[in-house]
Write a structure and sequence with these properties.
Layout lengths: L16 H8 L16 H13 L35 H27 L8 H15 L5 E3 L2 E3 L3 H4 L1 H5 L4 H9 L6 H14 L3 H9 L2 H4 L12 H9 L33 H90 L5 H130 L1
Antiparallel strand pairs: 1-2
Helix pairs in contact: 2-3, 3-4, 3-11, 7-8, 9-11, 12-13
């Protein structure tokens, strides 16, 4: 009973200083001992009872934004095989790791969707997810005894993915090319991060879990990766495809990191969450409105750019038509000049022919016939020129009409462009107001959290005073009993 009433430090995977010493120790090759070696059956049983008794609450999908991407509700049934002993510590350990993976994945998805941005390496729920996955992959590993000690690493099992799925060869090559990684444990951690960024972690885990004949080389028969709990965790990893992560691994020391699960992230007080739920909902609504306005701004900017491109194309076509109209006008002027010249030449020839006929009509009959032929040719040429002139005049009228229509269309486009610019300015003003509201909401939420912390401190002080009063009351009761006993003795003596 004393172990049951002990503080929650027994829930940690490092329950004693000796465990911490074994956790941080390394062999001669620089390989770190696995944190799984410090997991005792007693701590496993306490951890399972704490999970059942603790008030673990997550925000329901109804309290989030109404967008369909935020409605994720994982309902995974507990796997308890009839042929296995439910009191077996290894079975309980597998169930605890599966439950921890479920809590970690669910909390990571909900917090990432509430955050609404790309995750980086410093994000605490993401770090805890990698720690939990590392514990799951290390469960039941076969120890390889070498000259310098025992070596336990899941990197060999992850290398199987390259053989089963050729597209995973790129991740394996990238991990091997990373500078600063000297241990298989560090390479395995880098592989998990790269697979999450590519949104292929679930597919790769399913690939290796389906080949238990190959995994048996690295894991014991009762390991998590060899049992049904591994398939459940691989199915849970599908939900991480909605998360965008950008992790930089060049500056991180993945070889010497100590993976410790922080249970305080999952064992939260329900009263605290209920008090801050309203403020979080307001901040979520403001962020959703801000994202909507930014998306609308992008669409309006794209439409403005398209209209500007159309206006530029119309201006280019307008200049081209203007040049063609100027060329047509010059052509009409030259044709009119040619017609006037032909008229003058024909009148001059007619007058000369008349004079010649009056002077010598009998002698020059042949010259008159030639003149008549020339006159007919000039007349036909004049008719052709007049027809071409009419065609050019018609083309000029059509060009003028098209120019007027183009000018009217350009005016309409410019008016629409001005309206869109005005709408864009209004939306920018609305965006600034929303950002101001979000800042005020964040400040109010910070103030509320400070007030809650102060109230909790006052509650703690009151509980301490109540305990002191109870102790003093017990002391006074004991003194009263002593006085009653002494009074009884005195009465007996007097009698």
């Amino acid at each position: 009973m004393a172990g049951r009433d002990s503080p929650p430090a027994g829930l940690s995977l490092q329950s004693s200083p000796d465990c911490r010493k074994r956790q941080s120790s390394s062999d001669g090759n620089g390989h770190l001992d696995s944190p799984d070696e410090t997991l005792s059956p007693t701590s496993v049983i306490y951890f399972k009872e704490a999970l059942h008794s603790a008030n673990v609450k997550f925000r329901s999908p109804d309290s989030l934004s109404p967008t369909p991407l935020r409605q994720y509700d994982f309902q995974i049934e507990r796997i308890e095989s009839r042929r296995k002993d439910p009191k077996d510590p290894i079975t309980i350990e597998r169930l605890n790791l599966m439950n921890m993976a479920k809590l970690s994945i669910k909390g990571l998805i909900e917090s990432a969707l509430n955050l609404g941005r790309t995750l980086d390496s410093d994000y605490a729920p993401l770090q805890q997810f990698f720690v939990v996955m590392e514990h799951c992959l290390k469960h039941g590993l076969k120890t390889k005894k070498t000259f310098l000690g025992q070596n336990k690493s899941f990197w060999g099992a992850l290398e199987l993915v390259e053989k089963l799925t050729p597209e995973a060869g790129e991740i394996t090559a990238s991990v091997k090319d990373l500078p600063g990684l000297k241990t298989p444990l560090g390479r395995g951690r880098a592989w998990l991060r790269l697979a999450l960024m590519q949104k292929k972690l679930s597919d790769y885990m399913k690939t290796i879990i389906n080949r238990k004949d190959l995994l048996s080389e690295f894991y014991e028969p009762n390991a998590l990766m060899m049992e049904e709990e591994g398939a459940v965790i691989a199915g849970l990893l599908v939900g991480l495809n909605v998360i965008d992560a950008n992790l930089c691994m060049k500056g991180e020391d993945l070889d010497s990191q100590v993976g410790v699960i922080d249970f305080s992230m999952y064992l939260k007080d329900g009263g605290h969450t209920s008090k801050s739920a309203e403020g979080d909902g307001q901040i979520t609504a403001i962020l959703d409105q801000k994202n909507y306005v930014e998306e609308l701004n992008r669409h309006l900017s794209a439409s403005v750019n398209n209209l500007q491109a159309k206006v530029d194309a119309l201006e280019k076509s307008n200049t081209k038509l203007t040049e063609e109209l100027a060329v047509a006008n010059n052509r009409i002027i030259t044709l009119q000049e040619d017609v006037e010249r032909v008229k003058e030449e024909s009148s001059y020839q007619m007058e000369s022919s008349r004079k010649a006929s009056r002077c010598d009509s009998a002698a020059d009959g042949q010259s008159i016939s030639e003149t008549r032929k020339q006159l007919k040719e000039e007349t036909l040429l004049r008719l052709d020129v007049e027809k071409e002139l009419e065609v050019q005049i018609g083309m000029k009228q059509e060009m003028e009409l098209s120019m007027k229509m183009l000018e009217k269309d350009i005016c309409d486009k410019q008016d629409a462009l001005m309206e869109l610019r005005q709408q864009l300015e209004d939306l920018r003003a609305i965006n600034q107001q929303l950002s101001h509201k979000s800042q005020t909401a964040e400040s109010s939420s910070k103030q509320k959290s400070e007030v809650i912390v102060r109230l909790e401190e006052k509650v703690n002080q009151m509980t301490s005073t109540v305990k002191q009063l109870e102790n003093s009351d017990k002391h006074l009761v004991k003194q009263a009993r002593n006085l009653n006993s002494t009074a009884g003795k005195l009465l007996q003596l007097q009698q």
